[in-house]
Design brief:
Number of helices: 4
Strand order of the largest sheet: 1-2-3-5-4
Oligomer: single chain
Order of helices and strands: EEEEHEHEEHEEH
Helix content: 25-40%
Structural class: alpha+beta
Radius of gyration: 18 Å
Shape: globular
Distance between the termini: 56 Å
């Protein structure tokens, strides 16, 4: 699909959204009783699950333990049934390793790791259905799961993609929009402070076009923050009611 086809003459995208529109978001916390924290999120047709264990004693070699902060361990996987492709996806494939590293960098910037020296926090995320913005859905699910585990963070971490249809910025790209081959920006933002936890570009962009795409992704992250915050407050009410009983 060529870039001009991403936007109709009336200014609508293929799925009926306006350029700045987000896909519908649904999320739940506390979906696994066995984990310290867990969450499930749907962003359009992309579905992600996150579970968190810890903080706990560092597993394996004692040399892995960090004397002044917690070690953040992240693992990412893509369920074999998550896309139309039925090829085998080894647990340790290269893309999974790269995304796990990005998640680790993102959450090291957000979790108050210095409160837990010589300990480990494990974050496991899995894409159950892939339809664009896989990394972003994982970040948003993991944010809820870390909060569900009661691990202090500097702020929410909210992530979104953005692209361009010629010079029009598009927020929260779907899989067909990502496959169109245009420039794609990935942003993980701490919305209260405006601190960027992660910024990735798939192609070089002129400064004005970069600023437009970055602004679109930033607005999407702040809109997602409002959604995630409602989910956290709803979970807090549920837990409080259970404790009251």
């Amino acid at each position: 699909m060529a870039a001009p086809e991403l936007l109709s003459d009336e200014g609508y995208r293929a799925d009926g959204r306006r350029p700045a529109g987000l896909r519908k978001v649904r999320a739940r916390m506390g979906v696994f009783a066995q984990a310290d924290g867990s969450a499930y999120i749907e962003q359009g047709n992309t579905k992600a699950l996150a579970v968190v264990y810890g903080p706990h004693e560092t597993r394996g070699s004692r040399g892995k333990a960090l004397p002044d902060r917690a070690l953040v361990n992240c693992q990412y996987s893509l369920a074999t049934f998550s896309t139309g492709e039925r090829r085998r996806r080894p647990h340790g494939d290269r893309q999974a390793g790269e995304l796990a590293l990005l998640l680790k960098q993102t959450f090291e910037a957000a979790i108050l790791t210095r409160l837990y020296p010589r300990s480990q926090i494990d974050i496991y995320v899995q894409i159950l259905q892939a339809d664009g913005g896989n990394y972003c859905a994982c970040v948003n699910a993991a944010t809820l799961a870390v909060m569900d585990a009661g691990i202090p963070m500097r702020d929410y971490v909210c992530a979104s993609t953005a692209g361009l249809a010629e010079d029009t910025p598009l927020a929260d790209l779907s899989s067909p929009e990502e496959a169109a081959g245009g420039p794609r920006l990935v942003l993980a933002l701490l919305p209260a402070s405006g601190q960027i936890a992660l910024l990735q570009l798939s192609a070089r962009l002129h400064q004005e076009r970069l600023e437009a795409a970055l602004e679109a992704a930033g607005r999407a992250c702040r809109a997602l923050h409002a959604v995630l915050d409602r989910v956290v407050r709803e979970r807090l009410r549920e837990v409080t009611a259970l404790l009251g009983d």
